């Protein structure tokens, strides 16, 4: 729950920032000179890119959360079996062992979104965020293609 609150708080701060930057872009365009209009348009593009990125990230998080809820209802969420250091960080060897099992599970069932979801969690635990995101995107795509019962 704390992560959701933090996410929405940061998203709200970003939206305020986009509005402020956008208003500066409009002010530059209103000046009417070639230079200020050019800068104004460039300044307006940045908030548009930011809003698009925020939207895509929010959609991704929402879809991943839906998959997690569905997997939890089925009793298929991965159990936290990782060993931790005294400081609370995940032990690298433990994460590697779990990752090897999840990778083998995914290789055995490459069209099962559940295995890709669990692989994404294993990548995340192994601190490989780009691959975790790609595995979760694959899980979402497979889930969306799966026939409904």
Radius of gyration over alpha carbons?
21 Å
Biggest sheet layout: none
What best-fitting shape do the alpha-carbon axes yield?
Answer: elongated
Helix content: over 70%
Mean pLDDT: 91
Strand percent estimate: under 5%
Uncertain segments are none
Number of structurally distinct domains: 2
In sequence order, what are the helices and strands, one letter per element? HHHHH
Determine the N-to-C terminus distance: 31 Å
Description:
Helix 1 runs antiparallel to helix 2 (34-74) and helix 3 (92-108) packs antiparallel against helix 4. Helices cover 79% and strands 0% of the residues. The chain is built from 5 helices and no strands. It has 2 domains: 2-65; 92-145, Alpha Horseshoe (Serine Threonine Protein Phosphatase 5, Tetratricopeptide repeat). It is elongated and about 60 Å long. It has helices at 2-31, 34-74, 92-108, 113-125, 129-145. The protein is mainly α and 149 residues long.
For the structure shown, list the relevant keywords.
Serine Threonine Protein Phosphatase 5, Tetratricopeptide repeat, mainly alpha, 79% helix, 149 residues, elongated, 2 domains, 0% strand
What is the strand and helix layout of this fold?
Blueprint lengths: L1 H30 L2 H41 L17 H17 L4 H13 L3 H17 L4
Task: Provide a quick synopsis of the model.
The chain crosses the membrane at residues 7-27, 33-55. This protein has 149 residues and is mostly helical. Helix content is 79%, strand content 0%.
């Amino acid at each position: 729950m704390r992560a959701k609150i933090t996410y929405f708080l940061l998203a709200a701060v970003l939206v305020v920032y986009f509005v402020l930057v956008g208003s500066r872009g409009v002010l530059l365009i209103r000046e009417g000179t070639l230079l200020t209009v050019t800068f104004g348009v460039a300044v307006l593009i940045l908030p548009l890119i930011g809003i698009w990125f925020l939207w895509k990230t929010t959609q991704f998080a929402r879809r991943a959360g839906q998959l997690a809820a569905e997997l939890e209802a089925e009793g298929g969420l991965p159990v936290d079996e990782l060993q931790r250091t005294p400081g609370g960080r995940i032990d690298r060897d433990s994460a590697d062992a779990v990752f090897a099992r999840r990778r083998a599970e995914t290789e055995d069932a490459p069209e099962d979104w559940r295995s890709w979801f669990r692989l994404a969690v294993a990548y995340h635990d192994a601190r490989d965020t780009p691959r975790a995101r790609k595995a979760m995107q694959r899980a979402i795509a497979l889930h969306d293609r799966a026939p409904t019962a």
